[in-house]
Amino acid sequence: QLQLQESGSGLVKPSQTLSLTCAVSGDSISSGGYSWNWIRQPPGKGLEWIGCMYQGGSTYYNPSLKSRVTISVDRSKNQFSLKLSSVTAADTAVYYCARSSVSALDAFDFWGQGTMVTVSS
Amino acid sequence: DIQLTQSPSFLSASVGDRVTITCRASQGISSYLAWYQQKPGKAPKLLIYAASTLQSGVPSRFSGSGSGTEFTLTISSLQPEDFATYYCQQLNSYPRTFGGGTKVEIK
User: A30-80 pLDDT, tens per residue?
Assistant: First the structure.
């Protein structure tokens, strides 16, 4: 059974860079037919897609965050990462990683449990 | 960006009720629509993909329909464990977008 687990700093100071990692177990992150996504949810609000990376290395980002976001993969550790620079209080949210599957018409079939990130001095 | 508008945003219903949630897209997205269920403090769970295909393990009381710009999620007989927030998501183009959510509460 595929499992995803987010980790990283839970508290980030304004103007600094948020860094999170999603460890994948139960399958190789290099398997074809999937993309690896980051999604966030501010407290009490809805879901916002941040971006994704495909097995071949191509990336897609939400234009609203594109100038600040980098998604990368470490195949040796079977994990992928999110960096969000110049954070403000508006970036406070639960951050989820998720797998998108071609066989499910790109729907997000597996999710991590989420990790809360607070931006505060 | 493709905007998704869910209605209603809040729904009060009783166990056994038939519940329908609508999701309208700002432009045609064929059948590239998914539905998720989220309970407090938990990650979203995929219920339906390709507008009408039930994800493995999801009870058959959940069903989805629609194509183009109008979609529905139906729960045929609401169960206590179905009280949650439901989101639609379009996968037709980038950026992926979600509807604003529909919270289903106990009447």
Answer: 988 999 999 999 999 999 999 999 988 899 999 999 999 999 999 999 999
Residue in this structure with the two tokens 């109008």, named with its chain if needed:
B70
Question: CA of A121, closest CA in chain B: separation in Å?
Answer: 25
B35-68 b/e (C-beta count within 10 Å ≥ 16 → b): bbbbeeeebbbbbbbbbbebbeebeeebbbebee
pLDDT for A55 equals: 85
Confidence of residue B16 (pLDDT cuts 50, 70, 90): very high
CB within 8 Å: B95 and A62: yes
